[in-house]
Each structure stands twice: as C-alpha cells, then as structure tokens.
C-alpha cells in the first residue's frame, strides 16, 4: 500500500478542482486518445462506450473530479472504487496495465492545461493516481483470490459453448452457456454480469458486459440480450451470427449489484425493458433458497411483443409463494388485455409502489435504461427510501447517476 498522501499533494490536487470541472472531459478524451494508440491496451476496452455520446469520457471526468473533491474523505468514494474494481475483474485488467493509464493521464493533463500544468501539479497528480491505483489493485487481488479459490472459479478468459438459443421476445434472446471443459462454474451472486470477448469475422474483437439471467447453479450461465441496432454491434453479432454449438469467451462473474443474502427483508425488483435480466436471476435464487421471502417483481415494458420471460417468472410462483408479479405496458398492443397480459398501463407510478409494495422496509433493486434509473432513483429517494436500501445496475458508464 502506498504511503499516505502528503498535505502538500492534497492541497495541490484540491486546487485543481476548478480546472478539472472546466476541462475534465477534454483531459479524459485526450487520455483515451493516447491510450488507444497502443493496440494491446486499446483491446482492453469496451469501445461501445467511446462512441459519439462520449459516455466513458464523461464518466471518467466525473470520477476524477470526485476524487479531487474527496481526496481528504476517500470513504465517500468506496462505492465507486468497488464498482471500478469489479469492472477491472471483468475486463481482466492487471497490475501491469496501470502504468499505461498513469502516463496517458499525466500527458493529457499537460496537453490540455498546457503551461498551467506545472511540474508541481503533475507530480502531485502522479502521486494521487498511484495512491488510488494501489487501493484498486489491492481490492482486485482480494476479489480474484476469492474467485479462483471458490468451486468453479477461474482467472482470465474461459470458453463456453452455446447449448441453447431462446427467443424470449421480439427484442430479447437468451443464450445458455456450458463450459467447454465440462468442469463446474462459479456460483455467481444473483445480479452479477459476465464480460465477453466477442470475435466477429473480419472485425476487431468486442468486449461486452451482459447480466446473468439464470440463478446460480454451478453448471451453466444464461444471458438474455436485447438486440440493439445502434452502436458497435455486440448484440447484433450474438443475435445474428452466434448459433448453438458456437464457443464464446468470458471472464468470471463480476459486479457490485447483487441480491444480499445477509437479511430477509422484503425485496422489490423494479425493472424496465431488458433490465429484467438480473432480476430473473434474483427471482430464481429466491425461489430455490428462500421461497418464503416476500418478493415484489415489478416490470415495465412496451407491450406483450417486447415482454420477455413472463411465463418463466410466473411459473416460479409455484415454488415461491411470497412472489408477487406485476407488469405495466406503456404501449399495449390491440391484442393485449388489461388484467390478463398485464397489470397496468403507462409507466409504473411511484404512488402505486407506495400503496402496493412495502417501500418503508424493503430492499429495492432497480435496473433499466438511463432515463428509467434517473426517474425511479430520484422518486424513491423523494418518497423517503434511504439510499442504503436502493440498489441499482446501469448498463454502461454511470456518469450522470454518480453525479446525482
């Protein structure tokens, strides 16, 4: 572990906050530009987050600014540190990769701030970077050791064969994956994701995270993927090109969003669209191991055409008497029947959750698109639910949510 930061370094880093607030995205964009000049380093990243929206650029800029503002209170950054460490496990980021980021970051600060980036500032930020890097590396060692010493655990990339390909809705397809070596697989924590290295013919490799939609079983994983026409084509590759019998590579399950097994409070699983995938994993786990636990599965989607895994979830009620299933359709089809195919129309009102679910005592897990998360995390907080009972998963860099 690095020695504590000196008062001088802390003061200098804090003094750079105004410059970071103004130029942070320019600095992180320049940093990624430098990193991606190295082909091997470039391959470590999910380039779908580097697209026109610059989501990852903004996310890193927000994280650096938060670090500078909280450099005397790093406990406030603990959730962000855990999320980053889990991502590093997924992308198989190793200690030897950290110097590349350090060099690119410091050079980018100099590129953007020019003469304002004095040697004193660059030295202080170099010390601050390595202080945080050592915290991350230490945490990643603990996570990796826990994985590889558990039954079915592994380090790095492992091959899995697609044994089933199931069309769940007009948009979502499930892929059941068994390890090619025939050995057990790590029992994931319900809610975690797998990170895949996809290899489309004639194109660069793609790195993608997909939530596991099956409960932990030690034998296989299932992912349920929404086809996205925009972006770099990871989901299109899976939907169009990957067939039963094909082999995919993935790192072990990772992620800091998962069902707590430490208490038996009621659970509310609130999802929108493909955000149901980690929730289905949680429902399967509860049905198998805690079938009497009170669970409210509340899902919002467009219509029956886009509604995935409904029959499967409702079948779990037979072994889980505490499970309550409610679905809202925002744009029901003519053949959809209120009270039959779905429970409500429009979006899930916070007032409905207040009246029909135990908000005052439950753990609430939320997953869905950015707008869905922003709305419900805000509404739940305004309804008096403490942040300690609101858990969320976001598909992509959570820059705006972290800022909020």
Given helix and strand content, the structural type is alpha/beta
- What CATH architecture label of the largest domain applies? Orthogonal Bundle
Cα-based radius of gyration, to the nearest Å: 22 Å
Question: What is the CA-CA span between the terminal residues?
Answer: 31 Å
Strands of the widest sheet, in order across it, are: 4-3-6-1-2-5
Low-confidence stretches: 397-404
Instruction: Using the coordinates above, name the CATH class of the largest domain.
Output: Mainly Alpha
What's the helical proportion of residues? Answer: 25-40%
Structure keywords:
404 residues; alpha/beta; Globin-like; Elongation Factor Tu (Ef-tu), domain 3; Rossmann fold; 3 domains; six-stranded antiparallel β-sheet; six-stranded parallel β-sheet; 12 strands; 18% strand; disordered C terminus
């Amino acid at each position: 572990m690095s020695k504590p930061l000196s008062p001088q370094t802390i003061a200098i880093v804090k003094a750079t906050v105004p410059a970071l607030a103004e130029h942070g995205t320019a600095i992180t964009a320049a940093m990624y530009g430098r990193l991606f000049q190295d082909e091997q380093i470039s391959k470590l990243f999910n380039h779908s987050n580097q697209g026109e929206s610059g989501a990852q650029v903004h996310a890193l800029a927000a994280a650096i600014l938060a670090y500078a503002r909280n450099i005397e209170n790093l406990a406030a950054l603990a959730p962000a540190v855990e999320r980053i460490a889990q991502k590093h496990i997924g992308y198989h980021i190793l200690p030897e990769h950290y110097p590349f980021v350090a060099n690119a970051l410091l050079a980018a600060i100099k590129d953007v701030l020019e003469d304002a980036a004095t040697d004193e500032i660059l030295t202080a930020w170099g010390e601050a970077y390595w202080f945080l890097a050592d915290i991350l590396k230490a945490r990643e060692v603990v996570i990796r050791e826990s994985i590889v010493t558990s039954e079915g655990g592994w380090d790095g990339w492992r091959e899995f064969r697609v044994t089933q390909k199931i069309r769940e809705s007009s948009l979502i397809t499930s892929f059941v994956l068994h390890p090619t070596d025939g050995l057990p697989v790590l029992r994931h924590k319900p809610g975690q994701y797998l990170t895949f290295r996809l290899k489309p013919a004639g194109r660069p490799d793609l790195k993608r995270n997909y939530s596991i939609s099956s409960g932990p079983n030690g034998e296989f994983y299932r992912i349920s993927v929404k086809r996205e026409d925009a972006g770099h084509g990871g989901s299109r590759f899976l939907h169009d090109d990957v067939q039963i019998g094909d082999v995919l590579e993935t790192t072990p399950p990772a992620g800091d969003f998962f069902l707590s097994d430490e208490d038996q409070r009621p659970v509310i699983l609130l999802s929108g669209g493909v955000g149901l995938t980690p929730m289905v994993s949680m429902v399967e786990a509860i049905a198998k191991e805690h079938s009497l636990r009170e669970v409210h599965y509340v899902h919002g989607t467009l219509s029956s055409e886009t509604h995935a895994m409904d029959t499967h979830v409702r079948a779990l009620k037979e072994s889980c008497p505490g499970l309550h299933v409610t679905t809202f359709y925002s744009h029901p089809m003519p053949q959809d029947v209120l009270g039959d195919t779905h429970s409500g129309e429009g979006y899930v009102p916070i007032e409905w959750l207040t009246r029909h679910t135990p908000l005052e005592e439950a753990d609430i897990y939320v997953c869905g698109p950015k707008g869905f998360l922003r709305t419900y995390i805000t509404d739940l907080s305004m309804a008096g639910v403490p942040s300690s009972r609101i858990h969320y998963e976001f598909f992509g860099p959570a820059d705006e949510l972290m800022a909020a």
